[in-house]
Amino acid sequence: MKQTKRKFGFKNQKYNEQLAQIPHNFAVAHDEDNGVSELTIYGDIGESWYWDSTSATDIDNALKEAGNNDLVIHLNSPGGSAFDGIAIYNRLKSHKGKVKIQVDGWACSAASVIAMAADELIMGAGSMMMIHEASNIVWGTKTEMRKQADMMEKLEDGIIDIYMTKANVDREDIRNKMNEETWFSANEAVEVGFATNTATSVEDSANEEITQLKVQMQSMQNELNQYKSQEKEPDQLPVPATAAKRNLSKLFLNIN
User: CA 159 to CA 39: how far, in whole Å?
Assistant: First the structure.
C-alpha cells in the first residue's frame, strides 16, 4: 500500500508539515453542455511507487476525454517530478480550449511549472507559489556527479524558459530566485507576472462591474422616464390662439 505523506528537501522547512498533509485527489468532470472540463490536481506530481500521485499520463488521458472543452483546473500541490511537471505543462499548452488554473493552496516546485500553462492563473486567498533549483539524489564517482550537475543545469535552463513566458523580470532575476528557493504570496505571484490575478481582486472586479451595471441601468431608467414625460407634455400644453381661430373658421365653413 502506498504512503500518503512524504518528506521534502526544501531549504525552507517551515511548511513541510502542511505540504505533507495535502491529500491526494485527482478528479475529472466533463460538462459537455457548457463545453467545460474541470480537473482537480491535489498532492504529488509524477508516477511514484511510494505515495499516491498524479502523473503526466493521468493528465493526458483526461485531456483526451475533454476534447476541445475549456479547462478549469484546481491546483494544490507540493510538486514532485520536474519531468512530469514539464510534460503536463506542454500538454496543457497544446490544448485547444482555454486553460484556467485556480491555485487553491500551494503551487510548489513542479506544480509551479504546471501553473505557467494557464491562460488565466488565479491565486486563491492565502495561496502560495514556490520555485527552486533542481534537486536529485546522486551516488557515484566525482565524474558521475559532475555529469548529473551538468544535466540539472540544463533542466533548470528549460524550466527558466517556461517561467520567462510569464515573468515580467529578467532571466537572471528568475535564476537567482530559483537558487534562493523563493516563496511567493498570492500578491507577489501577480507582481512578478506569474499569476493573472488573485481571487480577492477577481471578486473586487466583479463587484465593481455590478456597481457600474447598476449605474448604467439607473441612467437608462432616468432617460426612459424623461422620454415618457416628454411624450405627455404636448397633450398637456394649451392650444395656441391662432390654432384655435383656424379650427373655428373650418367649423363655420363646414356648417355653411
Answer: 23
In whole angstroms, give the CA distance from residue 54 to residue 209.
Answer: 38
Q: For the domain bounded by 16-195, which CATH number is listed?
A: 3.90.226.10
Residue 25: count of CB within 10 angstroms of its CB = 13
| Distances, alpha carbon 77 to alpha carbons 53, 145, 215, in Å | 10, 29, 42
Element (H, E) at 125: none
Helix H, strand E, coil C: the string for 54-76 is ECHHHHHHHHHHHCCCEEEEEEE
Grid coordinates standing for 97? 480550449
**Which grid cell is 110?**
513542479
Predicted TM-score (pTM) of this structure: 0.76
Reading the block at residue 157, the C-alpha cell is 535552463
Separation CA 23–CA 76 (nearest Å): 9
Integer Cα distance of 67 and 35 in angstroms? 9
Q: What is the DSSP letter of 167?
A: -
Greater pLDDT, 206 or 133: 133
Angle in degrees, 0-180, between the axes of helices 82-93 and 142-163, rounded to the nearest 10: 30
| DSSP-assigned beta bridge partners for residue 77 | 107
* Cα angle, residue 12 at apex, residues 11 and 18 outer, rounded to 5°: 125
Residue found under cell 564517482: 141
Contact 116, 162 (CB under 8 A): yes
pLDDT tens-place string over residues 38-94: 999 999 999 888 788 999 999 999 999 999 999 999 999 999 999 999 999 999 999
Contact 115, 85 (CB under 8 A): no
